[in-house]
């Protein structure tokens, strides 16, 4: 039993940092905004309050991808506006509505 406990702890010790690296947003660029799903404020409200641009929406009001052209302090403004969590958009890629073909990608 002690061997299994040690093995489980070792696996967690190795996998948790990899999970964090995978979902941590880059220092600049788009970020997935997760708002509190039980609050009255949606992710779009949070992004608007932080003076950001909505790049993609999802079927859930508490999840969207945002970016801004005035990057300094954007993530702090999102947190102050009520963002529960900021993650890399690629980590949640399947959760977002597809972009239309005539809509340009951000930054192009």
Topology, pairings included?
Blueprint: H1 2-23, E1 31-35, H2 43-49, E2 53-57, E3 63-67, H3 74-81, E4 83-87
Antiparallel strand pairs: 1-3, 1-4, 2-3
Helix pairs in contact: 2-3
In summary, what is this structure?
The protein is of the alpha+beta class and 108 residues long.
Describe this structure in words.
The chain has 108 residues and is of the alpha+beta class. It has one domain (24-108). Helix content is 34%, strand content 19%. It has helices at 2-23, 43-49, 74-81, and strands at 31-35, 53-57, 63-67, 83-87. A hairpin with a 5-residue loop joins β2 and β3. It starts with a helix and ends in a 21-residue tail after the last strand. The model has no long low-confidence stretch (mean pLDDT 77).
Radius of gyration: 17 Å
What is the global morphology?
A: elongated
Number of strands: 4
Average residue pLDDT: 77
Oligomer: single chain
Structural class: alpha+beta
Helix content range of the residues, please?
25-40%
Strand arrangement within the widest β-sheet reads 2-3-1-4
């Amino acid at each position: 039993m002690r061997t299994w406990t040690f093995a489980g702890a070792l696996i967690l010790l190795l996998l948790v940092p990899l999970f964090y690296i995978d979902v941590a947003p880059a220092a600049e660029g788009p970020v997935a905004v997760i708002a509190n799903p039980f609050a009255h404020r949606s992710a779009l409200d949070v992004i608007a309050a932080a003076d950001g641009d909505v790049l993609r929406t999802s079927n859930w009001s508490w999840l969207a991808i945002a970016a801004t052209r005035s990057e300094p302090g954007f993530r702090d403004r999102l947190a102050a506006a009520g963002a529960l969590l900021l993650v890399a958009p690629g980590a949640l890629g399947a959760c977002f509505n597809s972009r239309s073909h005539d809509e340009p990608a951000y930054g192009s």
